[in-house]
Amino acid sequence: MYFFLSNLSFLDICYTTSLGPPMLLNFLSTRKAISWGGCVAQLYISLGLGSTECLLLAVMALDRYAAICQPLRYMTIMSHRLCLLMAAGSWLSGHSTSLAQTVLTMQLPRCGQNHIDHIFCEVPVLLKLACTDTSFNEAELFSVSVMFLVVPVSLILISYSYIGAAVMRIRSSEGRRKAFNTCTSHLAVVSLFYGPAIYMYLKPPPKGQGKIASLFYTMVTPMLNPLIYTLRNKEVHGALRRLLRKKPGLTGWS
C-alpha cells in the first residue's frame, strides 16, 4: 500500500508544480497568455498525469482487495515484482495515451482562433477551437475516456463489493472497523478525483462549470490527498497529540 501511496504522492507533486504556477500567474496577470509550446506542454503533462492517476487508483483498489480478501496470500499475490510492473504500466500507459491525444489535438487547424476559455490547455476546450470536423477526435476522446475512467471505476466498485462482503463476514466489530479504515481514505480520494473527471470528459459541462471541474481534479484533489491519508494514520494522530499537549491552554487531540 505504501509503495503505491508513494507513487500517488509523487504524481500529485508533479501535478501541482507543473500546472499550479502558470495557472496562478494567469490569475494575477492582466495579460493572460500562453505560448503554443507552453500549451502543448500543459496538455501533455495534464493528460499524462491524469491518465496515470486513473490507473493507479484502480491498482490501489486491487491491492486493498488482496489485503482484505486474501490476507494469507497477500505477500505472494502482491509481490515486489508485480507492484513494480503495475506501477510502471500505469505510468507508461498514461503518458503513451497522453502523447497520442496531444498529437491528434494540436494538429487540428484553428483558423486564427486562439482564445481558450479555460484555466489551462485541455482537450475538450481545444477541440472547440478547431475550424474543421472533429467527429473522429471526439469519438477517440470518448473511447479513451471510457478506458481510463469508466473501466477503472468499474474495477474499483467490483473490488470494493468483494471487500465489503469479506468485511461483513468478520465477527469482531474491532476487526470490521480496522478493515473499513484501510479503505475509507482510498474511497474518498476516488470520489474526489473520478467524479469531476467523468463530469468533464464523458458529459461536457455547461460553460463555466468545466473550469470548476478541471480545477477540482488538477489542484484541489492533489492538495487534499495528503490530508485524507495522513489524518487517518495513528502515528500522525500521536504526533498531533504530543504537539497539542505542548501548547499552553490546549487540550489533547480527540
From TrEMBL:
Pfam families: 7tm_4. The keyword Transmembrane helix applies. Keywords: Cell membrane, G-protein coupled receptor, Membrane, Olfaction, Receptor, Sensory transduction, Transducer, Transmembrane, Transmembrane helix. The chain crosses the membrane at residues 40-62, 142-167, 179-202, 214-232. Residues 1-229 form the G-protein coupled receptors family 1 profile domain. It is a multi-pass membrane protein. The keyword DNA damage does not apply. SUPFAM superfamilies: Family A G protein-coupled receptor-like. This is Olfactory receptor. It comes from Alligator mississippiensis (American alligator). GO terms for cellular component: plasma membrane. GO terms for molecular function: G protein-coupled receptor activity; olfactory receptor activity.
